[in-house]
Amino acid sequence: MSTTDDIEEAVATAFREEWGQVVATLIRVTGDWDLAEECAQDAFAQALERWRRDGVPRRPGAWLTTTARNRALDVLRREAVGAQKLREAAVSARDEGPYDPDHEGDDSGVPDDRLRLIFTCCHPALPIEARVALTLRTLAGLTTPEIARAFLVPEATMAQRLVRAKRKIRNAGIPYRVPPAHLLPERMTGVLGVLYLLFNEGYAASTGADLMRDGLCAEAIRLARLLARLMPDEPEAVGLLALALLHDARRDTRVDTAGDLVTLEDQDRTRWDRAEIDEGVALLAGALRRGRPGPYQIQAAIAACHTTAARAADTDWADIAGLYGELQRYVPSAVVRLNRAVAVGMAEGGEAGLALVEELERHDELSGYHLLPATRADLLRRMGRTREAATAYERALELVENDAERRFLEKRLAQCRAA
Amino acid sequence: MKYVLFICTPVGGEELSPAEIAVDPRFASYIHEVRTRDVVKGGARLRPAADATTVRVQGDEVLLSDGPFAETKEYIAGLDIIEVADLDEAIALASRHPAALAGGTVEVRPVWE
């Protein structure tokens, strides 16, 4: 006999693992995003009641999908909307057969509905904020208020955003499918971009400031894991997962108890998450073996260089500088060049790094970006040119906006002035 | 699904007549594609925005103004009504339109059916 807590726990677990699948299948079957969400919600509510009475089914996901689908058929029948829609849904239900707990076949060869869902949510015809919100709502099962809090916008705004996105999908005829081969590379980049943005939103939030924002990292990792599992032949999908894990491993050490920034160099490496690092490194190695590198694999390789160095002094900066050079070929941005300048400065000495920083300054790139003078300052500080470093820190302080970063720069400035 | 492609070109850009478009080599592959696939269900090449008259009604009064409804850097030079499976197909076709290739823009709008 299961206790109440066991059942609630089982439903909560099923929700985390199966929500996306249930919604994705229901969208395919009914073609109606709102109905799909309603029926999925209803199925989870029923699960709480029925599982308590009958026990947890062997395949909770299949039970939930079947329950949600039956509910959708009921609703469609009752409303008698679109006889055509009902016919399609009934045919599709028949094709897949009734729910049979002992013969839930594996879905090999059948495109996973969640892939259709993720590619549709991340369709480039939708505004980027809508792609992110829709992915979190339909695939990850976050509620509208939760998503609103995570992105610091009013709930009504977020609700409106979701309504508009779903309306556009329907009215503009955005197809519910995994894109054909000729569109796949481009669309894949879009999906990865959404997941990466999601991760960064969570990662950029300072620890403890808002747990909901922190939770975005976990959601992004879960979604990246799903994508990597569903598309194992896409090394960039695996690369993104590796990158997220390798960053996430250091998450708790980036800020101290007072909320101040701790640089990579000064982080307590014994507190890095070993399991995440090992998994990230193994995933990356597997992806790289496929011989199709890309920006996510390269960034993961850079993160791996950092997280696998036992001490900061052991960091292979030459390797990192090379990887940034490689990354520039895919992402020709000034920020990547600035990062390369840091790595070159560490590998070959401050002068070499400064030369690259000056090149960026000469071309007036990144003007207004506080990390440009902050990088100059750090290179000078390491070279013992503290007076010049102080001037550069002052410049960086004029530009910085984030409080934790401001306190960090002020501390460095004080050190340079005292030297 | 039916879509309208609004072909937008920069103000002051080329103003080819329908006859010129028909023989312009830059349009050849697009025209060939839409003919062989039979996706275009209608359309029009429009005279330049300078020839537009905008009509508004305020109460009983009909207000006319010279020019398009909004002054923009681009104007609608023409439109194609197409019938394709979904937005991806409409985007693919729009992205091969000579106006889009020449730096103009194509707005894809689903027809309200």
Automatic annotation (TrEMBL), chain A:
Coiled coil segments of this chain: none
Record-linked InterPro entries: DUF6596, RNA_pol_sigma-70_dom, RNA_pol_sigma70_r2, RNA_pol_sigma70_r4_t2, RNA_pol_sigma_r2, RNA_pol_sigma_r3/r4-like, TPR-like_helical_dom_sf, WH-like_DNA-bd_sf
Keyword field contains Iron: no
Superkingdom classification of source: Bacteria
Stored SUPFAM superfamilies: Sigma2 domain of RNA polymerase sigma factors, Sigma3 and sigma4 domains of RNA polymerase sigma factors, TPR-like
GO term, biological process aspect, one: DNA-templated transcription initiation
Annotated segments matching region Disordered: 87-108
Keyword Transcription regulation: yes
Basic and acidic residues composition bias: residue spans: 87-102
Transmembrane portions of the chain: none
Protein known as: RNA polymerase subunit sigma-24
UniProtKB/TrEMBL annotation, chain B:
Signal peptide extent: none
Ranges where the YCII-related domain occurs: 61-113
Domain of life, source organism: Bacteria
Entries under InterPro entries matching the protein: Dimeric_a/b-barrel, YCII
Protein family per UniProt: Belongs to the YciI family.
PANTHER family per the UniProt record, alphabetical: BLL7171 PROTEIN, BLL7171 PROTEIN-RELATED
Protein name as catalogued: Transcription initiation protein
Organism for this UniProt entry: Streptomyces yokosukanensis
